[in-house]
C-alpha cells in the first residue's frame, strides 16, 4: 500500500510540474526547465524508494556491470569490418543489378 502511495505522489508531482511548466510560459525557459528537472529528480527519488523502483535500479546497476565486461573492438578492427561490409553491399548490389538486367532482357525478348 505504501509503495502505491509513493508512486502516486511521484506521478502527481511530475504531472503538476509539467502543467506548471506550460502554465508559466511567460517566465524564463531556463528557470522552467530547471524547476522541471528538480521535480523530476524528486519524483524519481520517491519512486526509487518503492519495490518497483528498487528492482529498476538493481536492473540498471546489473546492466552497467555487464556493459563493463564487453570487449569493444579496436579502431582498426572497426574500420576493417566496415570496409568488408561496404564491399559486400557493393558486390550484392552488382549481382542484383546483373540478375535484374538479365531478367529484364528475358521479359522483353518474350513479350516482343
- Please indicate the percent range of residues in DSSP E strands (runs of 2 or more): under 5%
Number of helices: 4
Uncertain segments of ≥5 residues (pLDDT<50)?
Answer: none
Sketch the major β-sheet: none
Number of strands: 0
Overall spatial form = elongated
Structural class: mainly alpha
**C-alpha termini separation:** 79 Å
In helices, the fraction of residues equals over 70%
* SSE order: HHHH
Rg for CA atoms: 28 Å
- Mean of residue pLDDT values: 94
Task: Provide the descriptors you would attach to this structure in a database record.
elongated, 112 residues, mainly alpha, 4 helices, 88% helix
Any chance you could write out the topology, listing elements then pairs?
Elements: H1 2-23, H2 29-48, H3 51-69, H4 75-111
Helix pairs in contact: 1-2
Overview of the molecule:
With 112 residues, the chain is an all-alpha fold. 88% of the residues lie in helices and 0% in strands. It has 4 helices and no strands. The chain has helices at residues 2-23, 29-48, 51-69, 75-111. Helix 1 packs antiparallel against helix 2 (29-48). 3% of the residues are buried.
